Amino acid sequence: MVQTQIHPPSIAPVLTRPPVPESFDDYLDGLSDWLKPILHRVVEDEQELSSDESLALTHTSAQNLPGLCRAASILRDRGKGRVVTFSPKVFIPLTRLCRDFCGYCTFRQSPTEAEMLYMTTEEALEVARAGQRLGCTEALFTLGEHPEQRYAEAGEWLGKAGFHTTLEYLTHVSSEVLANTSMLPHANPGVMSRRELAALRPVNASMGVMLEILSERLCFEGGPHHLAPSKRPSVRLKTLDLAGQLKVPFTTGILIGIGETRKERIESLLAIRNSHRQYGHVQEVIVQNFRAKADTAMGDHPDAATEDLLWTVAAARLILGPSVNLQVPPNLNQTDYPLFLTAGINDWGGVSPLTIDYVNPEAPWPQISKLRERTEAMGFQLKPRLPIYPEFFMDRDDFASPAMKKRLLDMSDGDGYATGGVERYVNASN
Ligand code: SF4
Fold first, then answer.
1. Which of 102, 210, 296, 298 to mutate to test the pocket of ligand 1 (most atoms within 8 A of CB)?
2. Rounded mean pLDDT, 263-279
């Protein structure tokens, strides 16, 4: 078992509306002298943090955390205003078979455990249609990594259905959902080759892969990724870059609390920034916290602490800048989730009124009415969005085909958010 090397100082989080400083000096108050010029550069001078400055944030103490969060909030307000988004979705676990074994995962199943090897196209369409009836707009396909490479049963199932690989089948099911429902597919199938990404692109509004943590150390024996070749840093990064080369609107992010150091988190965020700087394709960055699950190798590992997540979110905003869409999943932080608005996030990610989070089945999504109430209590407006962010299709043509763009425009309001507003979902969930 990998032991966490992080010992965050304890702070007492207070759920309040983010303070709006009257001047920059207000939030420099009480900060350590080494941190003031760094925050001054990013907030006042509107400069990007260097790698060294970003890495210096690892030394933030509990005393400095509120100031760090305030600086991050100012950047968020500058780039995103006071709008916080979510994506009304259904979760379609096309297959839970996986060639990998991650130390924290309860999603994966072997053929003997799985009720079904793959969902059929009709079963996937059924879920999508049910989501459509509830006004959802995203069909999230989450599945295990290339199961046919480990299990003969997977290859046989695919062969009988007329496909060579899981990703070929995913492309087919995505196109069926796109053609037969109003839902927009968002594929999250793990690492992808150039050919696989290119095939999926026309039938997905966006795609994603979590970078998780770029740490070879976590791939050593005893680490959570020892038996997960898909989690090798170079493999994850390659998919991220390929998506950029192919102009795929892309979701990525980091997973914290699995034994990584703060330095490794910053290095992972810098890698995301570098890829986005080169290709401009990262539409959102998720900061996800580890939650221990019984019956896994990491079942006794402590959950990521709220203070540590706050620090990571604030650091992510400061490193990635005002224009990035930054997300924390509310279902993984049911008590504290509004707190992360004070550290610079502007998105809650996919929220489903229909399907569970199959990756974290113990963590129900909040009711959308509750999500709105708690978001507004912090001084923000909650808006539904499509699985592609407005800035990736409203005034440009390079990230969506003409057919996809027409569909996106038909489904969105003048600002690129899902038509009907949050009332549509609040009324449905009451
Ligand atoms: S986390 Fe993903 S890659 Fe790892 S075992 Fe689970 S399904 Fe497979």
1. 102
2. 98
